[in-house]
Design goal:
Blueprint (H helix, E strand, L loop, with lengths): L2 H13 L12 H4 L4 H32 L2
Helix pairs in contact: 1-3
């Protein structure tokens, strides 16, 4: 498997970690025209998005805990 194919697979795996979203299958031909730097940038964006969701969940949990004390 080439590095580019692995990056495409990583993007697909990240997309499939979202709760409530149907399994995502990416046709590698759709991303084949992108270079490795662009694919890495997509992965970075997805990871940032996941981190932001996690932080929002933690903030909500903290507010919930304060309201119940």
């Amino acid at each position: 498997m080439s590095k580019k194919e692995q990056l495409i697979k990583d993007i697909q795996n990240l997309l499939n970690t979202y709760d409530g979203i149907h399994k995502t299958d990416i046709n590698p031909a759709l991303l084949e025209f992108m270079d490795e730097d662009t694919l890495i940038s997509i992965i970075d964006s997805l990871l940032d998005q996941k981190e932001n969701e996690k932080e929002a969940d933690l903030e909500w949990l903290e507010q919930f805990k304060k309201q119940n004390n």
